[in-house]
């Protein structure tokens, strides 16, 4: 399996209004470091998984609507908790809508909350 990963980051604000989250029920900020990984079993016609510039642009385009936003007010998270897991799924599905998934095995979004904690969401295409 071949993999290509690009990285970017965003600053967001949000609250997680459920007693499960303790102090994070209140409005707080976070800097999320986000890695997007495209997977292919076989390389494409140019012997790459994907052009690195194209991958970076797709990740940036998916993150731009979230950057510096209060996710409590973002339509993508209306009626649901904007956990890091939910953000990862949202970013994966956004990126998946930006390219032809033919020939790709999957796309993984990994988000680091801090150096010691991260989550990921894997979107298979086959
Ligand atoms: N699985 C997840 N757990 C938590 C998330 C999340 O998105 N996914 N988010 C948060 C908070 O938003 C925040 O990032 C951290 O909150 P905090 O309570 O300060 O931190 P911890 O849970 O690490 O520590 P405690 O020991 O519970 O204070 C929280 N969890």
Automatic annotation (TrEMBL):
Keywords: Lyase, Metal-binding, Zinc. Its cofactor is Zn(2+). Gene3D superfamilies: 6-pyruvoyl tetrahydropterin synthase/QueD. It catalyses: 7,8-dihydroneopterin 3'-triphosphate + H2O = 6-carboxy-5,6,7,8-tetrahydropterin + triphosphate + acetaldehyde + 2 H(+). Pathway: Purine metabolism; 7-cyano-7-deazaguanine biosynthesis. Its EC number is 4.1.2.50. The keyword Transmembrane does not apply. It is an enzyme of class 4 (lyase). The keyword Chloroplast does not apply. GO terms for molecular function: 6-carboxytetrahydropterin synthase activity; metal ion binding. InterPro entries: 6-PTP_synth/QueD, 6-PTP_synth/QueD_sf. Belongs to the PTPS family. QueD subfamily. This is 6-carboxy-5,6,7,8-tetrahydropterin synthase. It comes from Rothia santali.
């Amino acid at each position: 399996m071949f993999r290509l990963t690009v990285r970017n980051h965003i600053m967001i604000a949000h609250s997680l209004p459920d007693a499960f989250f303790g102090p994070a029920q209140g409005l707080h900020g976070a800097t999320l470091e986000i890695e997007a990984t495209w997977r292919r079993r076989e390389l494409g016609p140019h012997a790459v998984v994907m052009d690195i510039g194209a991958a970076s642009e797709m990740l940036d385009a998916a993150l731009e609507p979230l950057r510096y936003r209060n996710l409590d007010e973002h339509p993508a998270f209306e009626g649901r908790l904007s956990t890091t897991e939910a953000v990862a799924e949202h970013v994966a599905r956004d990126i998946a809508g930006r390219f032809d998934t033919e020939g790709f095995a999957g796309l993984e979004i990994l988000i680091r909350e801090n150096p010691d904690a991260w989550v990921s969401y894997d979107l298979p295409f086959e």
